[in-house]
Each structure stands twice: as C-alpha cells, then as structure tokens.
Predict the 3D structure of the following.
Amino acid sequence: FALDTNGCTIRDTVAVVENALPVVALGPDATACGSVMLDAGNAGMNYLWNDNSTAQTLNASATGTYSVVVTDPATTCANSDTIAVTINPLPTVALGADITQCGGTALLDAGNAGMNFLWNDNSTAQTLTVTTTGTYSVTVTDPSTSCSNNDAIDVTINTIPTVALGADV
C-alpha cells in the first residue's frame, strides 16, 4: 500500500512465478573400460557439454572432467553438473586372419603377456595349439583394471591326401 499526497491509497499486485531449475545429475565420478555414456537427462531441454556438443548424451572415451549445462527452453532456467571420468584401455586382441592349411597344427597367440586368458575350450594359456577345423575365440582380461576384450578366428585344417603308388616294381 502507498498513500499519495491527497491521502488516497494505491494498491498494486505482482504475480511472481518461480520456475524450477532442471535437475542435472551425471552421477558419481566414474571409472570404465573403453568408454562410458554420460546422460544429462531432461529430455527436450537444451544441452551444452564442455566440448561444445549439444546432445543429451555424450560418449566419454578419454580420462578427464566432463560438464554439461542443461537449459529449459521454455523458462531459460539452467543448471549444470560435472563428473570426473577415468577410462581404462581395453586389451588389444588380434588373433590374425583366418587360417586354412593342409594338415598339421596351428598355434594361436592372444598376445598380452601377463594378462588373463580364457579360450572357448576353457583353457587359460596365452597360446592355443589347434589340430582340428573350427572357430576359436579368446577373451583377454587385464587383471589390474578388469577390462577385457576378445577376438575369434576360423581355422580350417584340411586332411592331407594319402597317396599309394603300390608296390615297387
């Protein structure tokens, strides 16, 4: 209320609307193998990540600090969050090209000395000697990070033909 110089009362009303801030929760700091998908939530809002990308999600494939600002386009209210991400590398597993040979054995080597190995026949050595045709696969796990990766290879071992010329003449 206010009084003017004539003693009249003046009244005015103001409506105040308090818009809620978007809730942005990237979660606790994260450690992942290879990459981790960060999600800012709040579908339909505007996003600005620290790398200037503008999607709701961001694939974090390098160790670092990631942040996002989420803005409600209807109210222009904005909120942000930051997360520290540690990315451990996946072991590199390359059994090579498929093998086709006549007889004998093939030696498969998963590389990565000092890691843990699990072949599809449940053996756990770094190498596997195969004597029959088949598909062979291995999973290699880094014991220090628990990150794992795998590869497969097709091996064809053809039977050597038997040649019999008969008795000496």
